[in-house]
Amino acid sequence: MVALNGSPTWRIAQAIIELNQADLDPHRLAQEKTQAVKAMLLDSVRPLPLIEVVKAWHGRRPMSVGTGSESAVAEALLAHLELRHYFSAVVAADHVVNHKPAPDTFLLCAERMGVAPEKCVVFEDADFGLQAAKRAGMDAVDVRLL
């Protein structure tokens, strides 16, 4: 399952369903998971120390979030952490057809920020995201190594 980190929720649900040979709709399972996670995350999540970089560069460079999560979860989480205003765009799994490791998420981030892809730097916590950044022609930093 770790190999699916960065994938949209429905794709992970589909893999779990196949692994367990269950007769479930992956989109419905993903929706139920999203609702449960929203409730749990809002009580327990804390921003990474990397948020200090975001605060330091706010207003100096455009920034966006490109996530494999559904937009409802991403937007709720950023609002709850009072971080949404730092980002000019949030691109989530439901905004693109081809998900990470395809470059679409990050290319749409660049487009919405009005920045050429080759001028972007991606801070990423998953292998699929690092692959997506490379395919988009962007530099990337693996935050798991920081």
Report on this model:
Its EC number is 3.1.3.-. It holds the Pfam family Hydrolase. This is Phosphatase YqaB. The protein is mainly alpha-helical. The chain has two domains: 2-44, no CATH class; 51-145, HAD superfamily/HAD-like (Rossmann fold, 3-Layer(aba) Sandwich), CATH 3.40.50.1000. Helix content is 45%, strand content 10%. The strands form two sheets. The protein has a two-stranded parallel sheet with strand order 1-2. The chain has a two-stranded parallel sheet with strand order 3-4. Strand 1, helix 4 (71-80) and strand 2 (89-91) form a beta-alpha-beta unit. Helix 1 crosses helix 2 and helix 2 (26-44) packs parallel to helix 4 (71-80). The longest helix has 19 residues, at 26-44. It starts with 8 loop residues before the first helix and ends with a strand.
